[in-house]
Amino acid sequence: MTIDIDIDLGRPGDPRRPVREAFERRGLRVSDWLIQQLRSGSTGRTHTAYRLGCVDRLRANDAALKTECCLRVLAAGLERRQRSHEPPRVYACIGLTRAMEAALGWTHMELGYVMRVMRADLAVWSTHTWDDELVAQFCEAAALYLRVHHHRNWKVFRSTNDIVKAAWDQHTIHGFYFALYHTAPPMTRGAWFPYELDLLWSFYTRQHELGDPLTPARSSGAGGRRCFASHG
What angle do CA 31, 226, 59 make, to 5 degrees? Predict the structure, then answer.
């Protein structure tokens, strides 16, 4: 996807105020320093162009690129998810994100960013819109995960998942993610990922069926550069 600034930046030494006002009419505030850097070529235009593209999509209430990106990521995960060989655990987590990175051609940091975007999207959406079916599915999956991913050593009285369970209110999506991110290490979030794939797939499929509107979390940021760049 190619995005152009489409704003006359002028030449070095020209007044910067008209350029600032042109950006503001497009919904973006920029500094005199950035204008100077763009004019001289010291700073590339790609990042500023993406920011303008995000603003345009916010104004159009269009999250189609983000939804398509997230569904592609989730499809890669669902295709590569494996059953666990350690019952009662249902899914294995080791190697899943690495396999997804290879399939998508992304770095570990890029995939991690989009995973956090999706979780934030679902969590914040759930505080604005109550969907009994999706909430019930989520709570069932979260309860299953917390139950079967107890510490491998049965002698351990209280594991990380026990702490997450105690911190979770047991009936909200955002409450689970709040507990997960405030009490558990990254390894615990990684083990949860195979279980949330179906839930996130259901969420973004519904968003697509509704015409890809912006979700509350994305109304203040259009889904991130990675989701735009993935269609380049």
Answer: 60
Strands (E), 16-78: none
CB atoms within 10 A of CB 165: 18
82 φ, ψ (degrees, to nearest 5): -115, 150
User: Which residue, among 158, 130, 131, has the nearest Cα to 146 in the 3D structure?
Assistant: 158
Residue for token pair 């570990």: 108
Which residue, among 28, 1, 30, has the nearest Cα to 16 in the 3D structure? 30
Could you give the CA distance from residue 139 to residue 127 in angstroms, rounded to a whole number? 15
Closest CA to 134 of 86, 78, 205, 41: 205
CA nearest neighbour of 38 among 54, 22, 25: 22
Domain boundaries in the chain?
17-59, 64-229
Rg of the chain over Cα atoms, rounded to whole angstroms, equals 21
pTM, whole model, 2 decimals?
Answer: 0.77
Express each pLDDT in 89-134 by its tens digit: 999 999 999 999 999 999 999 999 999 999 999 999 999 888 899 9
What are the φ/ψ torsions at residue 83 (nearest 5 degrees)? -70, 150
Assign 90 to helix, strand or coil.
coil
Q: How many Å separate Cα 91 from the centre of its chain?
A: 22
Q: How far apart are CA 217 and CA 76, in angstroms?
A: 24
Residue 70, CB-side half-sphere exposure with 13 Å CA sphere? 31
